[in-house]
């Protein structure tokens, strides 16, 4: 369900039934988090990790439903392999937390208190500690001074592979985000978003506004690369005005919340042309479309991540564009835009049902033009389910 569909849902469902559904989905989310915490602890045992210190990044919301504010005051979930978990949180931010006493205790701290000392006290005397991948250096160095003698690893080393496998509720959230992004993509393909004569930045702003209108809580990025800028895969949309007969790469995504749960991400790329394309663009795009479809079709449990990359890359290379496909074919997605599994040469990680990731080959002719097609897909028991369904064929947008 999307935010936009909410009023419609109210017609068919009584307020009582909706309240019951909300309570049961909240209970379901809590049960899911309890299961995650148990699996995280089992992974800690396997890796000899005594305590996890989850600060910034998505491990914290994955485990607790709470997302820390990315400010200088530390928020840290201290998760020992045995015993109670404690959320050390700035007192002024404690009211933001949906408390779940069965999952974690709260330790609000006041300005003037030493949050690092509080965390170290709760951590005990660990010999191996996992700190968030996105823990700021200033905080990590404080932890390391306070827990001398411990060895260190990242929380992704412990829970990255667990987070990569999405449960049904997470897949539903990713599907809702994908459907919302699809509606923006459909408007782009239909020529409802004016391109010619506008700057890339203006089009980027409109794509972002439409993501929000379709239910996203926030916009994570909206890349618009036109003409020669389309050959820069992560182009920063700027003051260049889009002209006729250019390729325009639009890659956009945001975070969408279903109910009170933590938000899940969308990420889609469509390339359009602002005038009848010449033979070069037609040929290049046809190769890209084939490569993307073949890579998606290859997805099934048991395959190594690098094999999916190879399927797309081989088609592009055989058509003579190999040197112009300059990035991995995809990345996992969930609470974060980019997370495990990474679909890249060298990754022998095996695809499992529930892995959600992008498939996004691109061909970039430096300084001239470029194209990319990106969908999010999820591996199923017997194959693959695309979460983006917006059309792939080359659309001419003369608006
Ligand atoms: Zn990218
Ligand atoms: Zn993207
Ligand atoms: Zn992507």
Would you write up a description of this structure?
The chain has 399 residues and is of the alpha+beta class. It folds into two domains: 15-162, 3-Layer(aba) Sandwich (Creatine Amidinohydrolase, Chain A, domain 1), CATH 3.40.350.10; 165-396, Alpha-Beta Complex (Creatine Amidinohydrolase), CATH 3.90.230. Helices cover 36% and strands 21% of the residues. It has helices at residues 6-12, 15-47, 59-64, 115-123, 137-146, 155-164, 168-189, 200-213, 279-298, 305-318; strands at 51-54, 76-80, 86-90, 105-109, 128-131, 151-154, 218-226, 247-256, 264-265, 268-273, 330-332, 339-343, 356-359, 362-365, 369-372, 375-379, 384-386, 395-396. The strands form five sheets. Strands 4-3-2-1-5-6 form a six-stranded mixed β-sheet. Strands 7, 8, 9, 10 and 18 form a five-stranded mixed β-sheet that branches. A hairpin with a 4-residue loop joins strand 16 (375-379) and strand 17. Helix 4 crosses helix 5 (137-146) and helix 9 (279-298) runs antiparallel to helix 10. The longest helix has 33 residues, at 15-47. One zinc ion binds next to strand 8.
């Amino acid at each position: 369900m999307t935010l936009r569909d909410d009023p419609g849902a109210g017609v068919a469902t009584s307020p009582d039934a909706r309240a019951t559904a909300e309570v049961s989905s909240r209970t379901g989310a809590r049960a899911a988090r309890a299961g995650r915490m148990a699996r995280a602890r089992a992974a800690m045992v396997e890796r000899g990790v005594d305590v996890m210190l989850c600060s910034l990044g998505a491990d914290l919301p994955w485990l607790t439903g709470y997302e820390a504010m990315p400010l200088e005051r530390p928020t840290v979930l201290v998760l020992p392999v045995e015993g109670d978990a404690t959320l050390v949180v700035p007192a002024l931010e404690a009211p933001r937390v949906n408390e779940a006493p069965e999952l974690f205790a709260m330790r609000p701290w006041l300005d003037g208190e030493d949050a690092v000392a509080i965390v170290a006290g709760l951590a005990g005397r660990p010999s191996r500690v996992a700190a968030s991948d996105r823990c700021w250096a200033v905080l990590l160095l404080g932890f390391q001074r306070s827990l001398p003698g411990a060895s260190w690893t990242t929380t992704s080393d412990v829970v990255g592979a667990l987070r990569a496998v999405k449960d049904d509720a997470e897949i539903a959230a990713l599907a809702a985000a994908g459907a919302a992004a699809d509606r923006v993509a459909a408007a782009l393909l239909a020529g409802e978003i004016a391109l010619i004569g506008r700057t890339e930045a203006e089009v980027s702003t409109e794509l972002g506004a439409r993501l929000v209108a379709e239910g996203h809580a926030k916009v994570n990025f909206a890349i618009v690369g036109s003409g020669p800028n389309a050959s820069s895969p992560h182009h920063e949309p700027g003051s260049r005005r889009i002209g006729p007969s250019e390729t325009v790469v639009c890659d956009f995504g945001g975070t969408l919340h279903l109910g009170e749960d933590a938000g899940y991400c969308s990420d889609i790329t469509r390339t359009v042309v602002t005038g009848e394309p010449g033979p070069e663009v037609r040929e290049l795009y046809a190769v890209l479309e084939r490569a993307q479809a073949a890579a998606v079709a290859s997805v099934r449990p048991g395959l190594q991540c690098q094999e999916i990359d190879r399927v797309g890359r081989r088609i592009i290379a055989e058509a003579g564009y190999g040197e112009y496909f300059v990035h991995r074919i995809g990345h996992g997605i969930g609470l974060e835009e980019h997370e495990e599994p990474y679909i890249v040469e060298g990754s022998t990680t095996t695809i499992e049902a529930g892995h959600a990731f992008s498939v996004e080959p691109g061909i970039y002719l430096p300084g001239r033009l470029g194209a990319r097609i990106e969908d999010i897909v999820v591996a199923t028991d017997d194959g693959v389910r695309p979460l983006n369904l917006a059309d792939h064929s080359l659309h001419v947008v003369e608006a």
